[in-house]
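Lecture 7, part B: from sequences to assemblies.

Below are the input chains for today's worked example.
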Amino acid sequence: MTEFCLQSQHDAIRPLAIFFAEALPVGKSAKLEIGEDVCFGAAKWLPVGKIELHQGEKEPGDEGEYSHFERALKFGAYDWKLPVFENLLKSAQELFPEIKVKGSHRLEQALEAISHVAIRCGFTHPVFDAEALAGMPFRKPTTVVVDTTSVLQGGLDFVVRFLYPYARIKIPAVVHMEIINMVDRYLRQRRKGRRIPSTLLDHANSQGGQRVLLRLELQADAEIERPRIGADPLRGIVQPDSDAEDKSLGLQQIQTSFADRLILETAIQHRERMSPDHPVMLMTSDQGLARMTLGEGLQPLFFDKNYSRQVFGTVLTGTCFYPIIGSSRSDDRLYQIPLPRLLWELAVTYGAARIANEEYSAAFEICALGENLSWNPFHARDDLLWVKWSGFDISKGSLTGKKEAPQMPEVTRKVTISIEAAEGKIEGKRARVLKGSYKFSVSSMILLIQAFIEKTQLKDEDGIRTIGLKSLDNYEKYRNFLRSGNFITPTANAFTKTERLQMLWDALLGRDYSQIEMSLTAVPSFNSFKEELRSKKVIYAKSVSSVSESAFSTYCALAEVVCIGLQIPEEGFYRTSSGPTLEQFSEMAVECYKKMSKGEEYVLTGQWLEGMAKEYSVHPVMSRNRLNEAYQAGYLQRYAEGSTPETRFERHSMNYLNVKNGTPMIENVNLYHGDFLLADRASVRIRIIKVNR
Amino acid sequence: MESERIFRLSVWRPARLAATFDYPADRTNDKNFVFQPDWLQEQVYVWDPGQNDIFSALDKDLAEQFHAKLSGYFAPDLDPEKRSIDQFAKVIDELFLTLRKSKTNRWASSPEKISQDQAEDENFRVDAPLALLNHLLWVTRVFAHMPGASVTIR
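Predicted structure of the full complex, as structure tokens:
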């Protein structure tokens, strides 16, 4: 792709994966560079570090040749090695040969913005006042009013990422206006073609600042405080006004100190509108504003910008620890920074960014601003930037890559041929071998199947809406699972149900377990999982070979639904495909009861059900049905005793297919609660006696 | 082994008491015991890596070195002066140097899962020692000049 095209960060994952896989020798880093067409000149680049991707090995369920590269890019498995600041400055000075002493301070400031990019992306954090960090995470809702330095230097991103939702965010209007002023100044200089460091600084601040505000509004879930009543104080002053007094005071020109005061006034006025015990803090890296805030009886949330340069010369990593605990879900400690997030942030801040191999024979370039490159609001909404690449071929990334031509099971081959035929005509794309395993929610899958049954045809966006997903990426796992079993087939701009899906749906409605199992066997990954279970009796997430470890729980749930397996927590997934006769079952049931009772009269129902699964490969649904049948046929006698279920067995549950109001649904049934075995009775304990016939 | 994997970082400072505190003398058998409110320490920051084993990606020697320098030098039974934040910053610098020299590939799968939305469920891959040191470096910067600040690692 040698011409620019618009791409989102998500779109860029694929070409970047192919770049890392094909254009870089194993173990080599990629060069990361920034460009600025006016200041550096066209086709001139400043190196800002090296990226080393740690893609790991392919997983068993990976369906694409580059899936592990894509995963590494998306989930932050890479290092960013930054240059030492002095070396960076030297390289930048070579791009400004006319700058000797004068102007180098501006150049240093413009380069420091790289560390602000690192903070905004989350690689590192603002160095807060110790007292302020001691108060994090917030224990009660607190309004944080931010100033312009917080927006530019990553303070606002920290609040959104780690302190929200307890932190309520207020961005004073004057912050927007200061940034707009920077934009105006930068564009004026750009139009004049002024190749000086202050142009670069204004570019970095204005475009970087606007990106933060747009990202917060359009991409983040955080909500900004914008009360309708009592707008920001003095907002009118910076708007065109013919008031003679304003003119004489020069208030139509934003002065730095005046802007600071406006920010503080916003915070003070916000405090007055809130209840007296609601804390309001003013976030800034400006010592003067922090002092003024303290002087006015407000708490500053101060961070020290003088540490910015210490980021240079270090190695940052794309997967980081949360800096404060207790602010997110209690068990979460890690978060990831997808590589495109860094590239996008650098590209917008400086105008362009690229990633290239050592010899520059292959490169991926992202451009936010340039001659003949347009901008529209939808670019911001979808976070689209202009990209192009050279030196590698992304058609090589086809999932049927030439390097590997795996032998497929017959059923897969048939499915592939039909998809290939359809795609060849309709989409013009190469055929896809859907041999991967897919992680999804079985309940949501039933919703999707229902939507296909009702509407016959479904577009991706309708499917995404039906099951309430956020991304196409996740929806593809559902869709590809159905495609791999030939349950749906691609047609123009949509997918259409096949006869096989109707059969599956009818089986689900009728709770015909063997028919559901037979239908699902058409899915290669499910078939492989079933075969592995058949050959091993018990399988474990860590050692499963037929599906990926991440998709293991999905396939366990499917197998539980069709009664061929049962997950026992802390043990493994047991095969339960046995179908004993009533007589055989009665022997097994009593034997199992006796083993467990150890002299006690009653045993826990769940323990007996799990014992039947482990020792005799009988699924709990089969055990329940056979137990009642054997009782009615006079093979055995059963007694139940109700009591409060023990909480230590709360995780011992099973996915169970039920049909309510004509709709199949998955229920999570706890085997130890007792109401599964004998409906409407809390038979927590059971006693089984053989009847002599 | 289980106890070795526990890692809990706390940053302390001398407690700033709002009122005078005392301790009833008859509650201790030690007749020479004198309650010293000035000795009280206040925890200002606490952090742990959760289920992530931060040493497992290191080779045996390096893991022992990390363990000895972090848990050993900052054991809670040491005087706060001996486990000051300055001392902590020096140890972090040393560990960074050690890590830089190490050639081992430390990227490994974490037991922690990524929850992007309801259907996404992949495990993180992480260079846990580097992520840990980057985090601890940030902690040392924040608390660098806090008077009397000290560190414990349990």
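Note for the exam: Helices of chain B lie at 60-72, 85-101, 128-143. Keep this in mind when comparing with the next example.
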